[in-house]
TrEMBL record:
UniProt domain MAM: residue ranges: 105-164
Superkingdom to which the source organism belongs: Eukaryota
PROSITE patterns to which the protein is assigned, alphabetical: FN3, MAM_2
Lineage: Eukaryota, Metazoa, Chordata, Craniata, Vertebrata
InterPro entries: ConA-like_dom_sf (IPR013320), FN3_dom (IPR003961), FN3_sf (IPR036116), Ig-like_fold (IPR013783), MAM_dom (IPR000998), MAM_domain-containing (IPR051560)
Annotated ranges, domain Fibronectin type-III: 1-98
Name of the protein this chain belongs to: MAM domain containing glycosylphosphatidylinositol anchor 2
Gene Ontology CC entries for this record: membrane
Amino acid sequence: PLWQNRPRVYSYSLQWTQMNPDAVDRILAYRLGIRQAGQQRWWEQEITVNGNIQKGELITYNLTELIKPEAYEVRLTPITRFGEGDSTIRVIKYSAPVNPHLREFHCGFEDGNICLFTQDDTDNFDWTKQSTATRDTKYTPNTGPNADRTGSKEGFYMYIETSR
């Protein structure tokens, strides 16, 4: 989800889930890294986790003061009492609204264009959109939450295949 607060600035609501929190040590915090695409220096901040993360729980963190039309790399790393887990990186790109008169732009996984998401063909993996109701349990039995944040099996989530 993306929104605009001022003419040259936008914000992004970063959302994620911990697929199977009981399979790993309790996550105490996440290290958030952000940098403008093409730059070397990362800005880092720790996001504290209060209590245990539940399976499928939607975690949200708002990224603010992003400069238009700059793209940003966002890195998220879970931290347990034993150290850091595997990081995930995504690129956030600003796209002007189709109707420039709109004050805010909201989107989600349920939208057909998935928030103007584009697949990066130069990386080593592909993101897949799926819902609990439509997933093929033969090929992806342990992928994603059992329900979306509203409790429905119809909501969508994105995942990458990492078991091969």
